[in-house]
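> call design_seq(struct)
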């Protein structure tokens, strides 16, 4: 916020952690009355430290912010450790309906009035190689409408296909091992 206040939280992954409260791993937000607080949510409780199981990667993690005044704020990753350099950290701003890749740079946003915004953001940790693979494949694949779904045609055999929704969630996976096939809409998960 105007480069004058910095708040950090920690989100870590461990085999011993879960999506629920893990005593000894998760740390509640202590100073809830601070001029600026940034936190993750477990149920409706605010945490400054949240440990999650490794199987949670790819699922949205709720983040909130509270401030005693409006203004322009910046949200970024100060350090990423053990996550892999090809991974992406995606931030979803539910107010602006935008998704931003925090792996590339900080996200700047505005809050017009003081308050607590517990459901403003979510963050997802996703595989970076998936994006590279999509970029390479889209040059060689053609997707068109088909009766009740989509047709995929490629000059090469498609061994694995993964479709994502706009939030980075997997909505369809298949191993067609073909270069011309259809996917029906009823096969695709709904968000």
């Amino acid at each position: 916020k105007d480069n004058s206040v910095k708040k950090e939280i920690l989100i870590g992954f461990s085999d011993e952690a879960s999506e629920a409260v893990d005593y000894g791993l998760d740390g509640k937000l202590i100073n809830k009355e601070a001029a600026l607080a940034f936190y993750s949510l477990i149920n409706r409780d605010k945490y400054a430290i949240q440990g999650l199981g490794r199987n949670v990667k790819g699922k949205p993690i709720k983040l909130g912010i509270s401030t005693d005044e409006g203004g322009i704020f910046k949200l970024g990753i100060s350090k990423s450790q053990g996550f892999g350099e090809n991974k992406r950290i995606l931030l979803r701003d539910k107010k602006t309906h935008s998704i931003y890749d925090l792996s590339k740079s900080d996200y700047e946003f505005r809050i017009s009035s003081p308050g607590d915004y517990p459901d403003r953001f979510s963050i997802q940790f996703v595989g970076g190689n998936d994006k590279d693979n999509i970029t390479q494949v889209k040059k060689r694949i053609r997707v068109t409408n088909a009766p009740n779904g989509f047709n995929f045609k490629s000059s090469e055999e498609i061994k694995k296909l993964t479709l994502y929704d706009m939030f980075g969630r997997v909505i369809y996976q298949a191993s067609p091992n073909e270069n011309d096939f259809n996917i029906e809409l009823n096969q695709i998960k709904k968000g």
